[in-house]
Amino acid sequence: xxxxxxxxxxxxxxxxxxxxxxxxxxxxxxxxxxxxxxxxxxxxxxxxxxxxxxxxxxxxxxxxxxxxxxxxxxxxxxxxxxxxxxxxxxxxxxxxxxxxxxxxxxxxxxxxxxxxxxxxxxxxxxxxxxxxxxxxxxxxxxxxxxxxxxxxxxxxxxxxxxxxxxxxxxxxxxxxxxxxxxxxxxxxxxxxxxxxxxxxxxxxxxxxxxxxxxxxxxxxxxxxxxxxxxxxxxxxxxxxxxxxxxxxxxxxxxxxxxxxxxxxxxxxxxxxxxxxxxxxxxxxxxxxxxxxxxxxxxxxxxxxxxxxxxxxxxxxxxxxxxxxxxxxxxxxxxxxxxxxxxxxxxxxxxxxxxxxxxxxxxxxxxxxxxxxxxxxxxxxxxxxxxxxxxxxxxxxxxxxxxxxxxxxxxxxxxxxxxxxxxxxxxxxxxxxxxxxxxxxxxxxxxxxxxxxxxxxxxxxxxxxxxxxxxxxxxxxxxxxxxxxxxxxxxxxxxxxxxxxxxxxxxx
Amino acid sequence: xxxxxxxxxxxxxxxxxxxxxxxxxxxxxxxxxxxxxxxxxxxxxxxxxxxxxxxxxxxxxxxxxxxxxxxxxxxxxxxxxxxxxxxx
Lengths: 507, 88
What we know:
The complex is a heterodimer of chains A (about 500) and B (about 90). Chain A has helices at about 1-30, 35-45, 50-65, 70-85, 95-100, 100-115, 120-125, 135-150, 150-170, 175-200, 205-210, 220-235, 235-245, 260-270, 275-300, 310, 315-325, 325-335, 340-360, 365-425, 480-505; strands at about 425, 450, 460-465, 470-475. In chain A, helix 1 runs antiparallel to helix 2 (about 35-45). Chain A has a domain at about 15-90. In chain A, the strands form two sheets. Chain A has a two-stranded antiparallel sheet with strand order 1-4. In chain A, strands 2-3 form a two-stranded parallel sheet. Chain A contains 21 helices and four strands. By secondary structure, chain A is mostly helical. Chain A is about 70% helix and about 0% strand. By secondary structure, chain B is an all-alpha fold. Chain B has a domain at about 1-40. In chain B, about 35% of the residues lie in helices and about 0% in strands. Chain B is elongated, with a radius of gyration of 47 Å. Chain B starts with a helix and ends with a helix. The mean pLDDT of chain B is about 75. The chains are: A mainly alpha (about 500), B mainly alpha (about 90). At the A-B interface, helix 6, helix 8, helix 10, helix 12 and helix 14 of A face helix 2 of B.
């Protein structure tokens, strides 16, 4: 009973606090004598959890003041965390540079990164001090900028720092959601290290970095494909196939990667197991053609809409299933992404704010706040709609692009088969079951034989044991058979003659 | 004058009449073709190697190898960029 009373009092105090802050903000707005009005209104609105309502006042203050004080820097931090750094993207560069604000340097760096001006991005991100809360994001952006500029050493150093900062942020965060966010960020930094090593062809180091991602991680299913590419480059095609077979695990149904089919076909092709490669190609067309058509029909019909794809993510599973099971799975995949979750979280905060404001007496101040939150909600919907649409377009383009690549594999196999016929040769053996002697493994590498069953602890450690079928042997022609028969007849005649001469001697 | 004209006229008449007579006396040439000729193929001699009828031979030539530039991952630059853009 006591607990319930405490909870009610707590909720009441929070509500009255929020209301009190809004009231104070209203008074400040209506008082013509107040100095630094926009700054003070920003504080009050943030105190009352009206983050989206505070945005226009914060921007006005940034534009009008010459120097930002530490208290306002904290307010900027709150706004960036709750609403995202894009809210300040429209502020001019001269204004952003004028204030010695780490948050605004980060905004500027990120904006230059969006514009593909990586050198400028690095220049401004370097101004963010080491003890700033944005360090994990800053280091990741800097690392990516260096990588894209081709400076892999500097990129590697930044990613390593990103990992350290994100790791300490995980330990220091009390909130589970924030903890999860930094954990994903930490893994992203690790993946970027692995990618960097892959690009510089240091494959063992790349695998080492990938192996640090835990199997329970959100990123882990995506890592499998990247790891499979490393193994492919190391010419360990059996391990590549083993890694890719993990995607057939029923619980990874929503992680369908068309690229994994191409890599599977390529691996079989490298092992000269042509029939297997061709069956993967056929399977790809069978599976992805209807998927591509279903996706295309949805995209073409609604390509000009500003909100169709956003509301598609709100539809029930049954409704999505009725459109096409693939659309349902793709939406599930999108809903698991960091971008969607962060943006959708911000959208919910904005919606909550708007609902509260719309219940209040509408004077000029409240009307301005409602207008602002509504415009922020619309911009979030448009931004998410664009993100989902882009994701789907990229997916369909990938399906079509890979389809051409698989066609090339088919043509190559046909050409190689024809060459064998002309040369009168054939490949050494028909496809047989694998053998353990063909499995490569390092000292710290797990290995599980895949026998058609999936076990949670074995996932990601499967390897096929297929022998390469690339050796060519001469094919028996009609002439060869004729020669063999003649030789056999000769040997039988000789045998008979020998037996006859022995019999004559005995007589 | 008239005498010379008459002599020239008589002379030309005389020569042309002799030419016509000589042409009429030419023998007519009748060309006769062979109506039947027999070839003994068995006695024919052909220089060079004899290929038995029914042998199919394919001239050896260097086969053209198609260039196969299969897709292979080289870097993750688009993914790296996307990760940063979709961070917050």
